[in-house]
Structure formats: structure tokens, C-alpha cells
Recover the amino acids of this structure.
């Protein structure tokens, strides 16, 4: 193939996925824009945004890839039942890792900002927000990934091409929306503020 | 690849990588913290943050996946005139030039629908387009370096390159956005 052919085919293949994820990213941005007040009141929250969003993509993207490989290899049946040990283990591992790493990100962000003598909300505030957002986004994204991968597979769509775009588009929106919800909840309980 | 499906083995494979990636992402969080004042003054820029980060990671990961497949099929050589290499690099820049002006316009439009935008339409589109083109070039460089390193150390590019490229591009996304904002706002 010539350079021109390679670039045209790569461009055509990627454009729909990129457009879809741009739309998802813009919606996430609108939610972040609406978080202005919380970002002002809780110093350090903005530091967590990239880490928490990336965690959603890394953890639940890998869950989707794992389920996709499992379906291809015949290790997993595309059925929604509570008895499948492999699916249960994959989901439990994703949730455990996702929640653990969210809390760890809050602790690391707090330590980093304290060392740099920048203003930062109390550790308990950041950890509470990361924990609540981690649990909620974990449950929502697990449902989305398992649902889309299984239903897609049963309808004959390759789960490998499906899981990626689903996680990138829903991950950012769900990630930021759950952060906003968690921040408002923690503030309303009176734990917040610097 | 036969892998065990237990919570323990999945965690053992995943958690160390996640800790390193989270540390990298906190770096970009720190950059955001540094220009928090500007972001809160101009919410259209705040709207651009997740989409710029996400698109940077996507451009990098799509390129990485394609190069990795070409590599596995034995179609890739590390030569600037290689058709796979050059073709995919050109496509990455082309995609950025196509999508980022719409991203900027979308961010301005959504902010305009929700409240009074503080920045001109042209400024937001210019910030998005400049960030996008710079990011595409950086994504190509990072992906090539990571793919070449994986090849050199005889690692499977599928395991290493995609997570590294996605997260490094996330950080670069914030840095480039910061640069574009300093330049035009």
C-alpha cells in the first residue's frame, strides 16, 4: 500500500469513533463547566479530575477487552446470570481496583499539594468524594460495559470494536457526573471546605 | 493469551500499572491546578478540558493499536519513508485538523446556550485547533518512541504501548491546552 492509501484508510476508520468520543467529551466538559462552584470551594478537586477520568478508562476499558477476549475464546457465555464465576471475578476485580485506585489518587493528590504548599481541602473531603464517585461510576460503567458487550456479541457485533468507544464516551460523562454528585453530597453533609 | 480469571491474578497484573498511571495523571492535575484561576474565569476553557484530554489519548491509542497490528503482521519497519508509519502519522494529523475545530465550536456553543460566554468564538476555536494539531504531532512522536522501545525490549506492544501512550497523551493534552491558552487568551 502507498502512504496515501494507508492514511486514507486509517482516517476513514478512526473518524466515526473520534467524533463519537468528541461528543461524549464535550458533554463531560459541560458538566465540568457546571462544577465551577464546587471546584472553587474544594481546592484540590480539579487535580483529581484527570486521574479519576483515566482510571475509569483504564479499569473499565480493560474489563471490556477482557470480556471481549473471553467471548472470542468461548470462556464466557453472553448471558446475564449471577452464577458465572469468570464474569463475577472480572467484575469484582474491576470494581475493587477502580475504587481502590480512586481513593489512592485522592491521598496522593492531598500529599502532593501539601508538599507543594498549595491550598488543599481536608484529606477526608477528597477521600470521601473519590470513594463515593468511585463506587457509583464503577457500578454504572460495569453495567454499561457488560450490557453493551453481551448484547452486541449476541447480535453479531465484534465486542472489541464496541467496548472501546462505549467506555471512552460514557466513561468521561459518568466519571465527571459522579464526581459532581459526590462533591455536592459531601458539601451538603458539611464535611467540605478548606 | 491464557490468563487466569481470578480477582487476585487480575489485580496483581493491573494494580501496579494503575498506580504508575495515576501518578502520571496527577501531574496533569497539577498543571490544571496551576491555571485554575483562568479556567474558572472562562468556563468555555473548562468545557475544553475533558474533550482535549480524551481526544489526545484517543489519537495516540488508535495510532498505537494500528502500528502494533502492523508490527505483529510484520508490515512495519522503523523508517520515516515506511508506508505504514508515514501513512498513519499523516492520518493522525488529518484527524486532528478535522475534529478539533468542531470541538472548539461545540464547546463555545454549549457554553453560549448555558450562560454568557466570556471568550470570543474565534478564540475558543483557535485554542482548540492549535492544541489539536500540536497534540497530533506529539501523539505521533510518543507512539513511535513507545512502539520502538517495546520492539527493542522485545515486549508485546499490545500490553505496554497502549496504556502508556494513552496516559502520556492525557498529560500532554493538558500541557498543550495550557500553552494554547497562554498564547491566545
Amino acid at each position: 500500500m502507498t502512504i496515501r492509501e494507508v492514511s486514507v484508510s486509517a482516517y476513514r476508520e478512526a473518524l466515526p469513533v473520534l467524533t463519537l468520543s468528541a461528543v461524549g467529551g464535550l458533554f463531560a466538559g459541560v458538566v465540568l463547566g457546571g462544577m465551577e462552584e464546587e471546584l472553587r470551594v474544594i481546592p484540590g478537586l480539579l487535580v483529581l479530575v484527570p486521574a479519576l477520568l483515566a482510571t475509569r478508562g483504564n479499569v473499565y476499558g480493560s474489563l471490556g477487552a477482557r470480556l471481549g477476549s473471553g467471548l472470542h475464546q468461548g470462556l464466557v457465555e453472553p448471558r446475564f446470570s449471577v452464577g458465572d464465576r469468570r464474569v463475577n471475578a472480572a467484575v469484582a476485580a474491576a470494581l475493587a481496583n477502580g475504587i481502590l485506585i480512586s481513593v489512592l489518587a485522592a491521598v496522593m493528590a492531598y500529599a502532593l499539594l501539601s508538599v507543594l504548599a498549595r491550598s488543599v481541602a481536608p484529606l477526608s473531603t477528597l477521600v470521601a468524594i473519590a470513594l463515593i464517585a468511585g463506587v457509583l461510576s464503577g457500578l454504572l460503567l460495569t453495567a454499561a460495559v457488560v450490557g453493551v458487550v453481551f448484547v452486541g456479541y449476541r447480535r453479531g457485533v465484534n465486542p472489541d470494536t464496541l467496548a472501546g468507544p462505549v467506555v471512552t464516551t460514557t466513561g468521561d460523562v459518568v466519571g465527571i457526573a459522579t464526581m459532581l454528585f459526590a462533591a455536592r453530597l459531601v458539601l451538603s453533609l458539611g464535611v467540605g471546605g478548606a | 493469551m491464557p490468563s487466569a480469571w481470578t480477582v487476585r491474578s487480575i489485580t496483581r497484573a493491573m494494580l501496579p500499572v494503575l498506580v504508575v498511571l495515576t501518578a502520571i495523571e496527577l501531574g496533569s492535575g497539577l498543571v490544571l491546578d496551576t491555571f485554575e484561576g483562568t479556567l474558572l474565569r472562562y468556563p468555555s476553557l473548562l468545557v475544553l478540558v475533558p474533550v482535549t484530554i480524551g481526544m489526545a489519548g484517543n489519537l495516540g491509542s488508535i495510532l498505537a493499536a494500528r502500528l502494533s497490528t502492523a508490527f505483529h503482521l510484520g508490515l512495519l519497519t522503523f523508517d520515516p519513508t515506511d508506508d505504514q508509519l508515514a501513512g498513519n502519522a499523516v492520518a493522525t494529523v488529518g484527524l486532528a485538523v478535522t475534529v478539533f475545530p468542531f470541538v472548539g465550536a461545540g464547546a463555545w456553543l454549549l457554553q453560549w446556550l448555558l450562560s454568557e460566554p466570556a471568550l470570543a468564538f474565534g478564540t475558543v476555536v483557535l485554542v482548540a485547533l492549535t492544541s489539536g494539531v500540536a497534540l497530533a504531532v506529539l501523539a505521533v512522536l510518543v507512539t513511535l518512541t513507545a512502539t520502538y522501545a517495546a520492539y527493542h525490549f522485545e515486549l508485546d506492544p499490545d500490553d505496554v504501548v497502549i496504556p502508556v501512550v494513552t496516559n502520556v497523551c492525557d498529560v500532554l493534552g493538558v500541557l498543550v491546552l495550557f500553552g494554547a491558552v497562554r498564547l491566545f487568551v
User: Anything to note?
Assistant: Chain A has a mean pLDDT of 89. The CA atoms of residues 69 and 160 of chain A lie 8 Å apart. The longest helix of chain A spans residues 123-154.
